[in-house]
Write a structure and sequence with these properties.
This protein folds into 2 domains: 50 residues, no CATH class; 101 residues, no CATH class. Helix content is 37%, strand content 17%. The radius of gyration is 19 Å and the shape is elongated.
């Protein structure tokens, strides 16, 4: 196999889940893993661990791709992307246990905070105010409507 990405793609095609725990690579179900795949994983262990533990950066136009972000958070625990509305990188994490993987200086929202933030319709002004508070160490516990025009799903 050519590289770590090809090894991971093969595992996915075989229905094998590849995750990491510390310095170990976990394969489930183990009964489906052919010996040559085990050898390829051993050969590319460092690269595979780097892929599994690196924050995912959603690529594409500089606007929020809600489905990609939600999928990354569900599957990988976190997603970092450029927010056009906030003018900076932001991170969404499944829970606080993933926050330590986000590079310093990037504002991080938990899944619970996101649920509250995007409940109902919020104006860009309201979202930016909440983001500014979050940047200064605040938490999202509730967001009141400010009566202004609501955002169109782009953050």
């Amino acid at each position: 196999m050519d590289d770590a990405a090809a090894v991971l793609e093969r595992a996915k095609a075989l229905g094998i889940s590849v995750t990491s725990s510390g310095n170990k690579i976990l394969l489930e179900p183990g009964s489906k893993v052919p010996p040559d795949l085990v050898q390829a994983i051993r050969q590319h262990k460092g690269e595979i661990l780097a892929i599994l533990t690196s924050p995912r950066l959603v690529k594409g136009q500089p606007r929020w791709h809600a489905e990609q972000v939600a999928r990354a958070v569900r599957e990988e625990g976190l997603c970092i992307f450029w927010s056009e509305a906030f003018g900076e990188m932001v991170a969404f994490v499944r829970d606080d246990s993933y926050a330590s993987r986000v590079p310093c200086g990037i504002v991080t929202y938990t899944e619970q905070e996101l649920t509250e933030l995007f409940r109902g319709h919020r104006s860009i002004k309201a979202l930016r105010l909440v983001h500014e508070a979050k940047r200064r160490g605040g938490m999202v516990t509730g967001v009141e409507s400010d009566g202004e025009k609501t955002h169109n799903g782009e953050v």
